[in-house]
């Protein structure tokens, strides 16, 4: 067996007034709690460092860019890396990336136990809309503030196995999991900020948690991989976001789940060898897939 002890570090709400310093202090607390449970890896949510700013229509680029990180680690985030190295723990972190060339992405990084960034992913499925839609109780402007990610979905050898990442809306699209499944991924880390209310389809609201579980459990089982889904939860600036952070086995079973809408660590011992029986039988891609029949999936 290849056990990775995982800490899903759900974050409660981050209000606009909360500084990165305050948020990082909360994250360090969760990291210390994870270390006390002998975690190898802590998974933080999407856009962990600030409130979910795509809920607002903004036009001033300086105001928008205040939510982005120009460097990683930065002064405010350095304590995360320092503490992780001291504790001998790895982590994944979601943040808004502003590159030196002036490109903006919804990004996640994978950091090993030596506090080295070993993987980076930029969100590909950007939900919501690009224009101001004032009829909505709140906006969802990821298409306005971020570019579509340009790194595809990769895997990295770390923590004893093949690790992959995706972000939030990616988890609703089977292609996200399958691209990594075809690279023999064994554990997918993802963070999410999911408003309970979806203005264009309010009748879906009552199914928010069900849909959240459904897509991650399906992705895990259909690709013989662990999936760790971690929420930024609770009421941020009047907008409720679901919790339900989960650790899901390659069997498709949820083996750990958050019970609150606040900062909460969910710990599980995940044996990467549990992926083998699915990859070798039911989802033996070389033996069973018929790619010639799948062409329509990649047509525009
Ligand atoms: N959030 C949401 C998500 O995909 C959403 C957007 C909410 C889509 C509800 C569909 C229904 O979980 C982000 N940040 O992608």
Largest sheet: 6 strands, mixed
Helix amount, in percent?
10-25%
Structural class: alpha/beta
Q: How many beta-strand elements?
A: 14
Gross morphology is: globular
> What's the average pLDDT?
98
Summarize, please.
The protein starts with a strand and ends in a 12-residue tail after the last helix. It has 8 helices and 14 strands.
Description:
Residues 4-274 form the CN hydrolase domain. This is Putative amidohydrolase. The protein is an alpha/beta fold. 23% of the residues lie in helices and 26% in strands. It contains eight helices and 14 strands. It has helices at 20-36, 61-65, 78-87, 142-145, 174-181, 208-222, 276-280, 285-288, and strands spanning 3-10, 41-43, 90-98, 104-111, 117-122, 155-158, 161-167, 187-192, 226-231, 234-236, 239-241, 246-248, 254-257, 264-271. The strands form three sheets. It has a six-stranded mixed sheet, with helices on one face. A six-stranded mixed sheet has the order 6-7-8-9-12-13, covered by helices on one side. A two-stranded antiparallel ribbon has the order 10-11. A hairpin with a 2-residue loop joins strand 6 and strand 7. Helix 5 packs parallel to helix 6 (208-222). The longest helix has 17 residues, at 20-36. The chain is globular, with a radius of gyration of 18 Å. The model has no long low-confidence stretch (mean pLDDT 98). The structure holds D-[(amino)carbonyl]phenylalanine. Residues 127, 168-169, 172, 192-195, 198 line the site of D-[(amino)carbonyl]phenylalanine.
